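ok trying again, last paste got cut off:
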Amino acid sequence: MNGKKNMVFGFVYLLAATVLSLYFGDRASASGTLLSSAFLQANLDAALNLGGGYLIIRLPFVDWLSRTISVLLMAGALLHSGMLYVSGIGLLPVAAVLMPLGVAIMAAVALFMGIGVLSLRAVR
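nice, full thing came through this time. structure:
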């Protein structure tokens, strides 16, 4: 169930990024790089949640570990590109300070998932 949550979150996050890019598209090109960077990063975070959700379903994690990875993937996406959106729109300009925390969370989870994939043994 945990991986399915990430796959749904990734799909909804991708749709939200598309809608926001259509709505704020002119403003992003006029104001600079922060908001336009948020559009790109949101697409990458959505893809990581989709792929991470698939791996959570397929890898033999214990339940608490799959829940932790699932929550960390979603929190990392919101702290990474979500904070770029918030600061790029101008709602909370200091929100970009939290963005490196989201990057660190996403990188740590991606590294951990990569180690998990590499440690699998082929079953014949």
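cool. The first helix runs from residue 2 to 23. Helices lie at 2-23, 25-31, 33-58, 63-89, 99-118.
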